[in-house]
């Protein structure tokens, strides 16, 4: 059983590596189109490079904002799709993704645990952002407020009908 799980986690890690490599290649191609050399990104972060060429700083800020926008769109669509697929059992999908992400990170940085801290913090942040405090939950609560009010109104009507029946039954019992 141990050998099966070790092979399974190894194949999972290799699959995620291929997916991340594909995303990285798409991102570097997009950066190349914008005129940013993706092979040497540390050069763009140095203060001397920014002081010598301020347009580079503007391009770098634009690339960072573009990356954030793509990431937020992707995560929002992905978790919306998961919520639509799993419905009330969305929490199972969240826990499974969280567990698989932690397994991937811990397996990837097995020999160097200091480098695993930042990716684990990112995974925990995404896990909590997709919970009840996340965008999807807040959006759903605002859009269905009228539906909730209608539901509460119908529940109050049903309780009033039941209460009047109980009072009628008590009155009949006291008359006999």
From TrEMBL:
Cited InterPro entries: BRI3BP
Coiled coil: none
Superkingdom, taxonomy of origin: Eukaryota
Entry keywords, A to Z: Membrane, Transmembrane, Transmembrane helix
Annotated Pfam families: BRI3BP
Keyword Chaperone set for record: no
Gene Ontology CC annotations of this record: mitochondrion
Residues passing through the membrane, by range: 57-82, 89-109, 115-137
PANTHER family: BRI3-BINDING PROTEIN (PTHR31253)
Record's protein name: BRI3B protein
Originating organism: Grantiella picta
């Amino acid at each position: 059983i141990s050998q099966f799980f070790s092979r399974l986690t190894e194949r999972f890690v290799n699959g995620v590596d291929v997916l991340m490599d594909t995303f990285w290649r798409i991102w570097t191609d997009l950066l190349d189109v914008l005129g940013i050399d993706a092979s040497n990104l540390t050069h763009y972060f140095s203060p001397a490079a920014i002081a010598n060429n301020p347009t580079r700083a503007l391009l770098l800020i634009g690339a960072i904002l573009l990356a954030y926008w793509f990431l937020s769109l992707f995560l929002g669509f992905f978790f919306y799709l998961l919520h639509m697929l799993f419905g009330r059992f969305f929490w199972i999908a969240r826990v499974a993704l969280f567990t698989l992400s932690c397994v991937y990170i811990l397996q990837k940085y097995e020999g160097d645990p200091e480098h695993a801290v930042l990716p684990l913090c990112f995974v925990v942040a995404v896990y909590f952002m997709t919970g009840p405090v996340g965008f999807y939950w807040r959006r759903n609560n605002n859009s269905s407020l009228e539906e909730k009010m209608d539901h509460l109104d119908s529940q109050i009507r049903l309780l009033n009908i039941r209460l009047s029946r109980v009072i009628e039954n008590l009155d009949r019992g006291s008359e006999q």
